[in-house]
Amino acid sequence: MERRNNPKWNQALQGLSHDEAEAVHSLMRARSYSPRGVIFSQGEPSDTLVVVRNGRVRLFITSPEGEEFTLSLLTGGSILGLAAAVLQRPRILSAEAVGHVDVSILSTSDFVASMGRFPRFSHNITRLLALLAVENIERSAPLVLDSASQRLGRILVALATRMPSGEQAVRDLTHDDLGKMIGASRTWVSLTLADFERRGLVTRQPGCIAILDPKGLML
Asked: Using CA atoms, how far apart are residues 180 and 198, in angstroms rounded to an integer?
């Protein structure tokens, strides 16, 4: 699901002077990814910090058997690989583009140097790591207790974005993608979404799931 408290780049720069923020930005380079493009892979060295500028990114973990489990979808302004960069450990997760994605990349060495150079930047990063820890607890606890159908409902509500028509909808995710988020098969997701539609909770169109009753999906 989309993280409510996911670390945002503007929070990392909060309180820095214009010159300090520009000094950090001058160290970053731009890059774009096509749909399904791999931004980084689990187990790789954490040699960069990635800031999402536009688009959405899927974070997932791969089991030793090769099964993927999606942990979240992150949107513009989100920071990828923060904990691994601070700890300077291999990547814990993999990240891939959902649709076209533009990012800014900061090398880990420049990131660490900027933390030492600008105390306020270092303070902000520490706070973001604390928020990440709290968010992970808050996000995981309900999912452990919920049934699979409740988990799917919660994830649909969390992932929904407002369409030009004003309705909330989940776009550009396959049933397989949704199944990986809750540990269920694509067939089970298809059957459960059909049940949601019969109950008037959602409507389905190609590439889009419109949310009709968010409260009903959370029950």
From this structure: 23
